[in-house]
Amino acid sequence: MKTLIRIHVIFNFEVLDKLPNSKHNKAVIIFSNAISRYKIEVELVSNQAKRDNVNNSYKKNVSSYFNLRLQYEYEPDDIIPELMILELDELISKEVELKKYSFLKAEALCLLRRYKEAEEILERYKDSVVALKDEEVLDYVLFEYIVALMEDDDNVNHDFTKLLRRMINEGEYLLYASFDQV
């Protein structure tokens, strides 16, 4: 027969009034008895701090994508669309403006001549984009732009050009051009 011996250790605890400097809520709890003393720092991170971190990451991804896109315009190289896709995958994983970033990914896939993958993206959103073309105009324009890229057909390109002209005439979009004197 085993004998069970229980030992109760009594700890006193206190919460310190003087807290460490931080943007977050911190507390220091000290447990002590005659033999030992334990200090525990607890930090509470608000959802706002998490959102700020996600927001900064989102801005970094958007900025990186657009820098790569501009770089591709001046230095077409297959590695650049690959890097664009990595940034877009990060943006898509954040599930913010999912359709827009998916269409931009489809464009990057077209730049790499990976049309089948681009077409899969378009098929995924086709019904909702067409149904909401008057409310979500930018998504619709991006969708039609990718279709025009993939088709490489004069009729499709002409239709896309007509769509843009109609939208400009209706005041949906304004074209801004600046000319620098050389």
Defining key terms:
three-stranded antiparallel beta sheet; 3 strands; disordered C terminus; 182 residues; 58% helix
Description:
With about 180 residues, the chain is mainly alpha-helical. Helix content is about 60%, strand content about 10%. The protein contains six helices and three strands. It has a three-stranded antiparallel beta sheet with strand order 1-2-3, with no helix packed on it. Strand 2 and strand 3 (about 35-45) form a beta hairpin. Helix 2 packs antiparallel against helix 3 (about 100-110). The longest helix has 28 residues, at about 45-75. The radius of gyration is 28 Å and the shape is elongated. The model is unreliable at about 5-10 and about 175-180 (pLDDT under 50).
Short structural summary:
By secondary structure, this protein is mainly alpha-helical. 58% of the residues lie in helices and 11% in strands.
The helix-strand sequence is EEEHHHHHH
For the CA atoms, what is the radius of gyration? 28 Å
- Mind summarizing the main beta sheet? 3 strands, antiparallel
User: What's the count of strands?
Assistant: 3
Topology:
Blueprint: E1 12-15, E2 25-32, E3 37-44, H1 47-74, H2 79-93, H3 98-111, H4 115-131, H5 137-151, H6 154-169
Antiparallel strand pairs: 1-2, 2-3
Helix pairs in contact: 1-2, 2-3, 3-4, 3-5, 4-5, 5-6
